[in-house]
Design goal:
The complex is a heterodimer of chains A (185) and B (386). Chain A starts with a helix and ends with a helix. With 185 residues, chain A is mostly helical. Chain A has helices at residues 3-11, 15-37, 40-56, 67-89, 94-107, 115-118, 122-133, 137-147, 153-160, 164-184. Chain A is built from ten helices and no strands. Chain B is α+β, with helices and mostly antiparallel strands. Helices cover 36% and strands 28% of the residues of chain B. In chain B, strands 1, 2, 3, 4, 5, 6, 7, 8, 9, 10, 11, 12, 13 and 14 form a 14-stranded mixed beta sheet that branches. A three-stranded mixed beta sheet of chain B has the order 16-19-18. Chain B has a two-stranded antiparallel sheet with strand order 15-17. The interface between A and B is large, with 61 and 49 residues.
Chain lengths: 185, 386
């Protein structure tokens, strides 16, 4: 289904269309938020919130805009808002907040709005898919556990009965491969 | 330290940072490195891009997580929508959301507790000019009390919408699915259920409305009092009917149904055919019915009386949140009667297979019913020998 059609159906209150959108982007968005917030459960909460808000404000959706970049942008902004609010209501520990503050400073350094458009092109998505699929099994498994399930090096090492060093090397190798392929486009 | 080694250290730092594993000290160190040179910054940007881009990859192992998250979303977006906070300026916003997410979980963990939550939140919110939406997912039922004191029982897969505070003129409620209403008497403010194009107007009565969109018909069963039914859709051929206790009126909302089909719907002795409207909106009224048969779904004992397997399958789907398909055409017209209390889907299927020549297969929430040929043959030979 075309994205404009999907947007139209969501605007009309079609929950099936909304489910399609949700299923397509739930994991990518959680993974995206994870980079900023560090904890999987926080990332999940933010993504849930984002989808609920999009549904509530569905009448105002613009069919002309790319839903995908809109989703990424929303999750990004909601990550920032989450911590703003958390600070006001003192919901999170001080160390965690301080750390997140630092993460944002580093991550958002020389970042601009166009990144949302760049990061979500079809071509890029395919390159990522291919790069990860082509990794040796062992390497891919370690990368997925670290990148998507947010396990610590120690946890991965125990789970797979390898050394922490192996885990580190494999993750680095996986990233190297992805970087190389990204450079080509 | 030479630059090559330095680069490796930096890479490790970056990866540790991106994967959320770096200590505060390491993060500070990384920050320092980034300020040091443009080269370091470029390396960071590159690795960051690779790491962030990888988010578009969806490992298969995440599927169950998405399933669960969607169920939560579904409950959240169908639960309560109120644009106003409770009291405090912004905390209400967060609090309400937390409640809603909690409601999502509550409904998943213990579906029955949903109604309690809804009643609680309504008490808090009834003065607010807003729209409340209450839904029951498939496989669960719920009961709530509206701001005016009217009690509503919701069958599985049902949504009702109503204002947080009813207007002075009339109490409006929008329904898809099936609900039983015990309307609080208020002579000056009629209670109006909007189901498709049909309006069901009541003052103080008990009645059941079944209006699942998939069925193209609205059935109203009156237990006590009086309700007035009106079709608002067609101004020229306006339909108005006053229903009396122990009557059921079935109003077909779209797709002209053939007369023979309608005749089959009800028992001959109780049937009154009406030709008051155009052919596109046939209406069937049955008098002197046993209303319990139509309202028992809300009670512990669910009574089934002479239902076709075809229709029964749809009811079972909603009650148990399963998909039921009938593989053998001839099975569809088999009729069933019985009472179901706390039986599981499997127990119900066992009863069915005891009383009719059918067998069932259950697989991942999908039930397939087919004819059991050997038992059917036994039946036939038994009948012949008689």
């Amino acid at each position: 289904m075309l994205h404009t059609e999907l947007t139209e159906r969501i605007k009309q209150g079609d929950q099936n269309a909304f489910e399609l959108l949700f299923r397509q982007y739930h994991v990518p968005l959680c993974n995206y938020a994870l980079v900023f917030v560090k904890h999987l459960d926080v990332a999940h909460e933010i993504v849930q919130e984002t989808f609920i808000r999009i549904w509530e404000a569905r009448y105002g959706l613009d069919s002309g805009l790319s839903l995908k970049s809109y989703l990424y942008r929303s999750v990004h902004n909601n990550c920032i808002n989450y911590f703003k609010k958390a600070r006001v209501y003192n919901r999170l520990s001080e160390e965690y907040q301080a750390e997140i503050q630092q993460r944002f400073e580093i991550l958002e350094h020389d970042m601009d709005d166009s990144q949302f458009d760049n990061m979500v092109t079809e071509e890029l998505e395919q390159t990522i898919q291919k790069s990860i699929d082509q990794l040796p099994d062992h390497c891919r498994e370690i990368f997925i556990l670290s990148r998507f399930h947010s396990l610590s090096y120690q946890q991965i090492a125990e789970k797979l009965s390898v050394s922490v060093n192996t885990v580190k090397t494999q993750i680095s190798r996986a990233l190297e491969k992805i970087r190389k392929n990204l450079k080509i486009i | 330290m030479d630059s090559l080694q330095n680069k490796e250290v930096l890479k490790d730092l970056i990866i540790a940072f991106l994967s959320g594993k770096s200590t505060a000290e390491e993060t500070a160190q990384l920050k320092k490195h980034l300020h040091l040179s443009r080269e370091n910054q470029l390396l960071f940007q590159e690795i960051k891009e690779a790491w962030v881009s990888a988010s578009s990859y969806t490992p298969v192992s995440m599927e169950p997580i998405t399933d669960n998250a969607w169920k939560q979303i579904q409950v959240s977006i169908n639960t309560v929508i109120t644009p106003q906070p409770f009291t405090q300026k912004d905390s209400g916003h967060i609090f309400r959301r937390m409640i809603r997410i909690a409601a999502g979980w509550a409904a998943l963990i213990a579906l029955g507790s949903l109604s309690t939550f809804l009643m609680m939140s309504q008490k808090e919110q009834q003065n607010v000019a807003s729209v409340c939406v209450v839904s029951t997912p498939l496989g669960s039922k719920s009961q709530i009390t509206l701001p005016d004191g009217t009690r509503v029982w919701l069958n599985a897969g049902t949504t009702i919408r109503y204002p947080g505070s009813f207007s002075d003129a009339q109490r409006d409620l929008y329904l898809t699915g099936e609900a039983f209403f015990k309307v609080k008497t208020d002579k000056h403010r009629p209670f109006v259920v909007h189901a498709g194009k049909l309006n069901i107007k009541a003052l103080g009565t008990s009645f059941n409305v079944k209006a699942y969109p998939s069925e193209n018909k609205v059935s109203t069963t009156l237990v006590e009092g009086i309700v007035k039914l009106e079709d608002i859709g067609n101004a020229r051929k306006k339909f108005i009917y006053t229903l009396k206790p122990n009557q059921i009126l079935t109003y077909y909302t779209s797709e002209p149904l053939k007369t023979e089909k309608i005749m089959e719907e009800t028992k001959p002795t109780e049937k009154v055919m009406m030709k008051v409207t155009s052919i596109s909106t046939p209406v069937v009224v049955s008098k002197d019915i046993n209303t319990t048969l139509y309202t028992s779904w809300k009670d512990k004992r669910w009574i089934i009386d002479g239902e076709n397997l075809d229709d029964l399958a749809v009811m079972l789907e909603r009650r148990y949140d399963m998909k039921v398909s009938i593989a053998s055409e001839e099975l569809k017209s088999y009729k069933f009667s019985g009472t179901i209390e706390n039986e599981t889907m499997e127990q119900v299927l066992n009863y069915l297979s005891l009383t009719t020549p059918l067998k069932y297969e259950m697989q991942k929430g999908h039930v397939t019913l087919r004819i059991n040929q050997s038992i059917l043959d036994q039946y036939k030979s038994f009948l012949k020998s008689k």
